[in-house]
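Note to self: keep these together.
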Amino acid sequence: MPPFVTVGIALTGTAEISENNESLYACKVEPRTGKYIARLFSSGMTILVALPDNITINTMHLQSVIINVRGTVRMFPERRMRRVRSRNVQPLLCETTLTKNDLVAPLFVDETTTAPKPIESMPGQFRYPVDGIAGIAGKMWERGIRAVLLFGIPSHKDDAATSAYDTDGIVQQAVRRIKAAYPGMVVITDVCACEYTSHGHCGIVGGTRSGEKDLLNDESLLLMNRIAISHAEAGADIVAPSCMLDGMVHSIRTALDDEGYEDVLIMSYSTKFSSALYGPFREAAESGFSFGDRSTYQMNPANGREAYLESRLDMDEGADILMVKPAGPYLDVLAEIATLGLPVAGYQVSGEYSMIKAAAERGWIQEKETVLESLTCIKRAGADLVITYFAYDACGWL
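Structure:
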């Protein structure tokens, strides 16, 4: 090995030693006693290496730049990314802009209360009485929100979820009141049975071949048809089946068309994961289950290909809008489903909301900045609509 020599270059960081354009060693170039030397990492040992005139150092930045060891070092490639980040240029080059029209506000309507009831696990959210829901929709409208998603809490629950399709049920009343006061508001209704069943599952339950009670698919489809029709009759613009039943979109589409509601859209909860982030919602909607769980009909969080296929099947069955729920942890899935070509909604669920609220209340994060960042990222991933409990606040910040 040649004797140690110093190298007169102002360079630190990772580099590559090469001779006649052929890579020899990976090394680190760093200062020593006022000069700069090359240190070669070989077999776990650090060795000082001589650099003859025919040896060059290649900097490992965005582009390889060949230099003479006694020449001037070019520390940057031609493209400097920070040039586009000056404060006055950034707005011109922003790739994703969140707007009020992107946001959908979920609202809880409670048949058992006469005054707004705070939801303890979702600070800032309430269960509203039906006679006040038009006024709440009006506040949303004045803020710039043009769509709401309704969830009902009935006074009566039973195994057959009969309150879910009652023509004078809580959601049906709410739809009529909102549309009468604000006909331009897009009213979306959640089509499911978990709030209306005594057992808390999303439809009709019964025995299965495993010997356990579980959600029965085809029997529950008939129930969803009745719920969707009752919402359409009340004036809903969009019905949103959330039960993750096989064939639910085709079944509901056929039922709506047969009743003359061809213009009512279906926004399918097409890829709804069996997530741990729904806890606060279950308190808000009183939709906890009395046995088992929902993992036999909601999606396994580990399965990306299956998640895509679920949405693809709902598209083929006639869904007008697809959905990924929850949104934040599943932006990769959302981005892939957006390639199908249909509009996609991303649902920022109760757990996502409550985590941001809890951290902000403790001063660990800034609420406004965190909320707008999270919503923008959902849109950037491909969402055309973002369902969020932050809708009212976000519209005030935009």
